[in-house]
Amino acid sequence: MPSSNTSFVRSTLIMLALGILILTGIVGASLWLVRENSVYSDTVAKIRLIRSAAADLLSSLQDAETGQRGFLLTADRSYLEPYKTAIRDLPERRQKLKVAIGDLSDYAGGMPGLDRAIDAKLGELATTIALASDGKIQDALVMVRADIGNTAMGLVRSTLTGFIARTDERLQNVVGEQLAAANNLQWTTVGGAVAIAIVIGGAILIIVQHLRELSRAREVVEALNAGLEERVNERTEDVIRANQEIQRFAYIVTHDLRAPLVNIMGFLSELEASLKAVGTYVLADDRKPSEEEIREARLAVEADLPEAMGFIRSSTRKMDSLINAILKISRDGRRKLIPERLDLKAVIDTAAANVHHQVVASEGSIEIDVRVKTATTDRFSLDQILGNLFDNAVKYRVPGRPLSLSVRVFPLGKRRIGIDISDNGRGIAAADRERVFELFRRAGEQDQPGEGIGLAHVRSLIRNLGGDITVESTEGVGSTFSLTLSADLGTIIKADT
Fold it and tell me: Which helix (H) or strand (E) holds 110?
């Protein structure tokens, strides 16, 4: 028996150590992803600052050149306003680009040549304008035709557009690396969850087998003492009551500790406590285990260990679902948009048809008022946006009240379109109107399934299309989601490229 107990404890401790090692790996991988996200954000911010500074500087020089050309052609000094504004802004914008680049070797090497070209161009602009102001238009035109300024401007343009292209390429690489890291973490989490399940299953199998042997030995002892049966019955009732209390406690804990990693670490502590109870029982080599020790060991095997395994599995699944949600948002941000001319009435009718049977089931109705016939945008993104908002209207309707869903499409100037989607559902509190668009944040009563990514996904999609979304809502009355959308996504994509 002593040898058997020692072997049992050794096997259980090995299983527990292996489980802790796997969980530590998962936690470490999660912390690594957080650090990578921070580095990614800093890198993206710096890249975007360089791109913005380069674009602003190029725009100022082009404005200055435009003012010069206009003045030389018309002799009208009003054409010099863009030139004056650009000359005033240029020093600040040149300094902004230098600060943004800092000591980055990819860009810093081109700065001396860029400065010389800018100075040459500014000198050409100032000289020609001075000549024209003195009435020497022909001399100014001769200087322009000498192509000195054009050569300098060509060098400026090629250098700055090179900076912009390099930042775009680097940004794409950074996003790719981030997605690869998230994918690796996802597979690490899934693999770790499977390994934990196998380890805990093996530990339970070892414990159950050993307890069966101990149970047979206990039955022999009970047969020698008939009076022990009554005490066993009493202890069993205590075990049941204690088990019910533990289940209630576990319910409270799993609802209070929301973070999956905290759940995992918390139930590791419970596994350790259960092992102590079992260890106290099985290591009683020189004496007969007490009924209290037997009860605690049985409780550990039949309730605590399986329960801990279940919560750890649930937490790892939660982690996996959150990572999948992040990946979904990331993939949508990287997906290539395909602008095409869409019949807005047909697109909205299709989205409404997907929820029509649910609306009819509530004796409700859908009203559609489309005052803009077509728009050039990405069909997949628009379908996703409308589908999410229609599904939410159905999901959060007021029970017993016929659902009234209305869609209104109207022009917002020449290049933008407005879409209002209204419902008479439960509404959103004023404090939560912005919060509902945050990732993994939900408002109101949590009586519907989901991770809280729907409206965050919608906002991400609509902003990719050059628009935005806001909400006006009154609790118990309903909500109106207002979308703004570019009438021609193609022009936005061309401007970005």
Answer: none
Rounded to an integer, the average pLDDT of 268-285 is 60
From the list 266, 274, 270, the residue with the least C-alpha distance to 299 is 274
Which tokens go with 342?
Answer: 């869409």
**Residue 29 vs residues 187, 265, 320: alpha-carbon distances, Å:** 11, 15, 13
Is residue 320 within 8 A of residue 189, CB to CB? The reply is yes
Cα gap 234→158, rounded to integer Å: 89
Strands of 150-299 (E only): list them: none
- Give the whole-angstrom CA distance, residue 225 versus residue 312: 42
pTM summary value? 0.40
| DSSP string covering 261-302 | HHHHHHHHHHHHHHHHHHHHHHT-TTSPPPHHHHHHHHHIII
Instruction: Look at strands 365-370 and 404-411 and give their pairing.
Output: parallel
Contact predicate 185/323, CB 8 Å = yes
Contacts of 70 (CB under 8 A, 6+ apart): 76, 79, 80, 82
Q: How far apart are CA 247 and CA 219, in angstroms?
A: 29
Q: Which residue has the tokens 């982690």?
A: 319
Helices (H), 109-147: 111-133, 137-145
In the three-class reduction of DSSP (H, G, I as helix; E, B as strand; rest coil), residue 136 is classed as: coil
Cα separation, 377 vs 269, in Å, equals: 54
Domains of the chain: 1-334 (no CATH), 339-496 (3.30.565.10)
Q: Give per-residue pLDDT as tens, 94-120.
A: 888 888 887 777 787 778 888 888 888
* Antiparallel, parallel or unpaired: β 416-423 and 478-486: antiparallel
Rounded Cα distance, 77 and 67, in Å = 9
Q: Which of 30-44, 148-162, 275-289, 365-379 has the highest mean pLDDT?
A: 365-379
